[in-house]
Amino acid sequence: MSADLKSSLVNPAVSKPPLGTHAPSVALPLGFVLSGLLSLGFGVGWLVLRPSLLATYHYNQYVIALTHLFVLGWISSVVMGAMYQLVPVALETKLYSEKLARVQFACHLVGFVGMVWMFRVWNMKQVGHFGCVLGLGVALFVYNIARTLRRVPKWNVTATAVAAALFWIGFTVTAGLCVAAGKCAYDSNTGFATEGGVPLVVDGLRALGAFMARFDAISAMHAHAHLGGVGFFTMLIVGVSYKLIPMFTLSELRSKTRATASIVLLNIGLAGSFTTILLRSPWKPAFALVVMTALGLYGWELAAILNARKRRSLDWGIKYFLTAVVLLFPLSGLAVVLAWPGLPLNTFTGQLENVYGFLGLVGVVSLAILGMLYKIIPFLVWFGRYSPHIGRAKVPALADLYSTRLQAFGYWSFLAGLGVTCAATLVSSEAFVRMGAILLALAVATLALNVGAMLTHLIKPRLEPLGAPSNPAKSTNRSELTGAKTASPLSPSPISKPA
Amino acid sequence: MNTITQPLILETLRQVIDPELGCNIVDLGLIYSVTIDGTNARVIMTLTTPGCPMHDSIRFGAEAALLGLEGVERAEVEVVWDPPWHPSMMTEFGRAATGVGSY
């Protein structure tokens, strides 16, 4: 035995705590996730109460407020919280700063709540102010994760996708603040000092507003939305699934070239789409097709990963996620249709745009997140409550923390709600939008029940004492349990070298 | 006489589960070797994937389980990635418990 190994022998008196060296404390990501879930509940409830939001064209203050509640309050909260937890562990590094992450959480909460409220009352100046608070938080988030990425020992396709997503979220927020500046008559400088930095800032904002006035307001809003929807959310779905789907299904990445090509094309397609949407260019369909090609490569690689999986049965969390991936294809087809230059600008087209946005945010991104939440929340709860007890007491598995029946019910309720809401939106039926929203609310309720069940473990852990190990000579032959021959419990492969 | 034996250590490690897969680390085929030196126990093991979020939990859990065994005063668990884990290393019990097909 080497001296190093001897020195690392564990003494019971100085046993190290079994907490992760890579991830931050569970309270931080759990705070983000719970804020997200509350926002989801409010958002779906709002839709039940006001189904007219989807049954009419989307360029109004209430739809914009609801969209930002979904995008910032629900989706971004969960995604950011999950990234603080998963990026360090998935990329085998440490989070740069948990303190910065906590400051970002505060900025995020104040920023998005204020923005949604001010959108609702259509006070664009205050939207800009709260947007700056949110933007400060996003800047901290980008800096923190970027510094974390710099520590990654082995760069891979997932790290590339995360880096790209950081660039696009920064761009999304900047573009959003520019859109807000373009919409507000910035006249608050009358009461300010005439010297120093304040007038300079106000003059700068006026100039920015004048610059943004060159662009069509709806096009600027659509371009901003695509930056966030494709650049941040879709980029992460694609990149992170190259790591997590093999991990959960016991498989491996099949083609690094194909995976890398999908990320590269997604970036090219988005850069082109942003520009052509903003400028109302007839080249929009070409870049929509580039994005579609990127997603086609992604789907191809994901299918190859799943075909090579060792774990044949797929749990409901993975089913949620894969259903979202499947929905990416009708969504991108719809994008090509809506990008077509000769498309008539009538009521039906407007409703088709509503369906596109709803399918993207709720059908694809939300469903993917719901699937991953059934991995993330049990992990956070288990890690926070049971990790110190493993090996000392009998602890439950992750799947024991929630009800799979409720999870399955939530899946079907969500899909039914999605289908009904999309169809009702297309034909502008408020009654059926409400019905669809109620089905979605049922799905959210099942999630809430399951989350409640999981959180009770934090207060009331279910620990049982370990039984004494049975005498191996008399122990049950495990082949009797399976009717098959028992393999050696030690791995048959030789150890070539210790790490 | 030393009462600590390799089969006893394996039975002890069967009480440590991978919470994601819901199966113990022995039947998952994660244990590569067990060495006993007096009252010291040394285990070399792997995990199903590098970057596994449960890395430290499982490693320290295995150490805790060994230290709970009468006669073990020191325990060392080392996680290695070479050779990489493969489902063919699982026992039939492990495959049945996790829904992995036969090899």
Write the layout of secondary structure elements.
The complex is a heterodimer of chains A (499) and B (103).
Chain A: H1 3-7, H2 27-49, H3 52-55, H4 61-90, H5 98-120, H6 124-150, H7 157-183, H8 197-212, H9 217-249, H10 256-278, H11 284-307, H12 316-339, H13 347-385, E1 393-394, H14 404-426, H15 430-459, E2 464-465, H16 479-482
Chain B: H1 6-13, E1 17-18, E2 23-24, E3 31-37, E4 40-45, H2 55-67, E5 74-79, H3 92-98
Give the helices and strands of chain A as they follow along the chain.
Answer: HHHHHHHHHHHHHEHHEH
> Strand pairing plus helix content of chain A: what structural class?
mainly alpha
CATH evolutionary superfamily of chain B: Fe-S cluster assembly (FSCA)
CATH topology of one domain in chain A: Four Helix Bundle (Hemerythrin (Met), subunit A)
Helix content of chain A: over 70%
Shape category of chain B: globular
Rg from Cα of chain A: 25 Å
Strand order of the largest sheet of chain A: 1-2
Total number of beta strands of chain A: 2
Task: Tell me the number of helical segments of chain A per DSSP (H or I, 4 or more residues long).
Answer: 16
Please give the count of helices of chain B.
Answer: 3
Please report the distance between the alpha carbons of the first and last residues of chain A: 14 Å
Overall spatial form of chain A: globular
- How much of the sequence lies in strands of chain B comes to 15-25%
Count of distinct strands of chain B:
5
Unreliable residue runs of chain A: 1-20, 471-487, 492-499
Q: Largest sheet of chain A, described in full?
A: 2 strands, antiparallel
Shape-level CATH architecture of chain B:
2-Layer Sandwich
